[in-house]
Prior knowledge:
Elements: H1 14-33, E1 37-38, E2 44-46, H2 47-54, H3 59-64, E3 66-69, E4 75-78, H4 83-92, H5 95-98, E5 103-111, E6 123-132, H6 137-154, E7 160-165, H7 172-184, H8 192-200, H9 211-216, H10 229-244, E8 250-251, E9 263-270, E10 279-285, H11 289-292, E11 300-306, H12 307-313, E12 325-329, H13 332-347, E13 352-354, H14 361-371, E14 375-379, H15 381-386, E15 388-393, E16 399-403, H16 406-413
Parallel strand pairs: 1-5, 7-8, 12-13, 12-14
Antiparallel strand pairs: 2-4, 3-4, 5-6, 6-11, 7-9, 9-10, 10-11, 14-15, 15-16
Helix pairs in contact: 1-6, 1-12, 6-10
The structure holds adenosine-5'-triphosphate and magnesium ion.
Adenosine-5'-triphosphate binds at residues 81, 112, 114, 119-121, 124, 126, 258, 277, 279-282, 304, 306, 308-309.
Amino acid sequence: MSITAIKGFNDILPAESDRWQYIEQTARRVFELNGFSEIRVPIMEKTELFRRSIGDATDIVEKEMYTFTDKGENSVTLRPEGTASVMRAFIEHKLYAQDPVAKLYYLGPMFRYERPQKGRYRQFHQIGAEITGVNAPLADAQVLNMLVQLFREIGLDEPSLQINSLGCPDCRPAYRASLVAFMEERLDRLCEDCRRRFTTNPLRILDCKVPGCIEATVGAPSVLDHLCGDCDDHFAGVKGYLDSTATPYSINHRMVRGLDYYTRTTFELVTGLLGSQSAVAAGGRYDGLISQLGGPAIPGIGFAIGFERVALLLGDKDFSRQPDLFIATMGVGERDFAFRLMHDLLRSGVRVEMEYEGKSLKSQMRRADKLGARYSVVIGENEVASGKAAFKRMKDGEQIEVPLKCEDIKKMME
Ligand code: ATP
Ligand code: MG
């Protein structure tokens, strides 16, 4: 019996990885354009980091983490998300001492023990960005505009931006109390998880995907009606800047997000094409997180994009790269000649393929077709002797005679 991968852990095979690279390259370009630098953090952290940041009474910490004890008896966890690690590093290396305003991005695998289905896996990948040190709603708008721009550049117009504000420690308790009063009368209609959330983390009930809970919470009080003056002004600022740059958005006052560290602005990019895996990117402001983790009182805001969901939205669009040239050869002597020519061409940046194992000319030409080469050339005794060959432009069959020299071949291909 052969060994298979672990359930919910995927191999990303070539056609798929072409799409992933396209997403990654586009994201790096847009982030760097906006002044962000990459930070690389470990995929495993002390369990305490996630308990303290994401929160003990969240689904992620309660049931989804890959936590185990290592050989040194330490409790360690495969990271379920990136922000906690990035902020741990920000504090540990005192990046704020040089400049409290940091613009950082990261990418890599995350791990959550969830029920695998389309768009939901146990190892999945995120690319995310964070801005620390800015309270002003301009930072929120900047982050949102960058996210929207990135999706446009990837070529996806459909996911739409939803925003909300979760208030701050000053105004949230009053909202929580009014939500609890509303839910109390509907407890019997909630799922078992939500009845538990009612005491541990009542806001979470609004995020439940069980249809009965969605129904039972129709008409629940809106967090936006409970914001304090400062939070209200801040949210108005964010909306104003989005309006001034004509960034389309809608307000979803039920969006609470699955992590406890969020304050004020929260947001999701939502698609209608992936069933209940509707969020392709999500994030928000976390003004209390850095101090909660033992750092100074510095605010932050950021988001994470789910690679797998973006790749699903791209469908089977082809991002593979075809060779510029396929070199076919008639015999062993020409193969040595072609090998040296390929070497020179590769060094000058031409994408070349050749046949390694003396197949028939017919099978070599079939391979040139299959690879989608732009040009092909057949090298036999005459070509070696004259130092010239006829290059065939594959799309229209046009033959172009050119010296078998790097510069001439490159020029012909322009
Ligand atoms: P969902 O509501 O779908 O569970 P989430 O709120 O848990 O998402 P976040 O923790 O905010 O998601 O993560 C940000 C993004 O990462 C999501 O919008 C999604 O694209 C992606 N993501 C989260 N969990 C998974 C998973 N198990 N498999 C694949 N992608 C995921
Ligand atoms: Mg989730």
